[in-house]
Amino acid sequence: MARAKVKKDWVKIAPPSAKIERIEAYFSGHGYEPHRHDTYAIGRTLSGVQSFNYRGSKQHSLPGHTMVLHPDEIHDGEAGTLEGFQYRMIYIEPALIQKILGGRPLPFIVGGITTDPRLFSATEPLLTAVDESFELLEEDDALYDLAQTLATVGGQHFHKRTFDYKAAEIARQYIHSAFSQNITLEELSMISGRDRWSLSRDFRALFGTSPYRYVTMRRLEYCRRRMVTGLSLADVAIESGFSDQSHMTRQFIKTLGISPGRWLKIVNKGS
């Protein structure tokens, strides 16, 4: 009796964008180990059942549901049925949401999945096939609508508190320019003009993660760009600011849920 053909896992990455990262992927079973991003991960399941652990409970996304995973929240990913699952996802930096919302604490969607038609509609223009491109103004309009819809649907009531958005943004920009160096909180404090503990608090509230995690994510973002050029993992690690390849690998798995080698393999299959 012939065996049923098992579909291969794959990931397709959209052409680079200055604003967001977009992927489309298929996994036949287990997808990702527990990991976390410092971006919003906003997506839609196209087929199958997309199951994941998120904030202490098991979630199941069906076709038509909108997933909104908050920055720095641990989650994993696997197929909820034997069919496997296919999905599209966009990754948006909290800093971009902040530029639209003007320094308010980040919106949060309880449970990480919503059937709210407003968010379905707001994400539709950005969750297109990865081989489709946007005009710059089209992308900006879609991002503005999405940020405002997130604030409406997932807005929270906070105690009144003053955040120094300017100081936090100065620190964030400095991290982008020097992520491969050994950056300290004291250094960020001096550059931003904000005492370090207030800066750390504001950074977390405004950008969804700690300064150290933000540095690590910029290093891993750079790693992925360099890995696809064929540079050795050891050289990529040093160039990115990690102490060695094993240090990079630990952070890669912790952050993305898969090893650098497996990531390269499934990305190459999708290209």
TrEMBL record:
Keywords: DNA-binding, Transcription, Transcription regulation
InterPro entries, sorted: AraC-bd, AraC_XylS_family_regulators, Homeodomain-like_sf, HTH-like, HTH_AraC
Domain HTH araC/xylS-type residue range list: 169-266
A Pfam family matched in the record: AraC_binding
Entry-linked Gene3D superfamilies: Homeodomain-like (1.10.10.60)
PANTHER family xref list: HTH-TYPE TRANSCRIPTIONAL ACTIVATOR RHAS-RELATED, TRANSCRIPTIONAL REGULATORY PROTEIN
Protein name, entry field: AraC family transcriptional regulator
